[in-house]
Amino acid sequence: MSKKTVISMAVIRRLPKYYRYLGELLRNDIERISSKELSERIGFTASQIRQDLNNFGDFGQQGYGYNVRALRDEIGKILGLNKEYKTVIVGAGNIGQAVANYTNFEKLGFHLIGIFDRNPKLIGMGIRDIEVQDVDNLESFLKNNPADIGIICVPKEQAQRIADAFVKSGIKGIWNFAPTDIAVPEDVIVENVHLSESLLTLSYRLNESELFKEKIGR
Length: 218
Ligand code: NAI
Description:
Elements: H1 9-27, E1 32-33, H2 35-42, H3 46-54, E2 66-67, H4 68-78, E3 85-90, H5 94-101, H6 104-107, E4 110-117, E5 126-127, E6 130-134, H7 138-144, E7 149-152, H8 156-168, E8 173-176, E9 189-192, H9 195-211
Parallel strand pairs: 3-4, 3-7, 4-6, 7-8, 8-9
Antiparallel strand pairs: 1-2, 5-6
Helix pairs in contact: 1-4, 2-3
The structure holds 1,4-dihydronicotinamide adenine dinucleotide.
């Protein structure tokens, strides 16, 4: 990651989980929740939740707990969800199409405005209501249609080249699906997505008892 954060990344990475759980509570018409009950649902201790939220203000009330809607709105604001973002995808293969087709991102305020690829077979194809364009048009497109977030879904050998084009076009946030570290200037933020890391964590956990057989007495 390029830019340093004021709040620790561990706290920041928990915020989307709070946001999601609070959204679920609202969908179940739960408007108020004690910190104990919230902690049981989310799986963090009540003091962890209090500490996390204290970084941003004073949210709960002694003896009342949390107002679910107000807390969700506040966390939404902290996550920047009170704004709208324009996104472009480069690489219209498996991952690019999957991301493009996931319409829930739109509901959160992330609006896909362009998809690019270099494969003539894909150029001109429609994904949702967006036509895949030749990647050679990327920079001129971004000049006329500035975007906030660039999404990299190309093979790793091509990722830096696409990141450079994004940076040159003024994009400040890059969501990188390619399994490689990309170099960007200080003021550009890269968030890497690694499904395989999550899968390997799962396989570790499936096998952990084998590794520590003696310690856990099995
Ligand atoms: P894919 O081969 O289906 O799609 C890649 C697309 O990128 C192709 O359509 C290709 O024509 C296009 N492309 C290649 N170079 C380009 C360039 N310079 N400009 C524009 N388009 C270009 O591959 P897939 O499965 O969608 O994977 C894409 C990337 O995502 C790969 O780097 C892969 O390793 C990564 N990946 C990451 C995962 C994760 O957890 N983050 C999971 C699976 C894949």
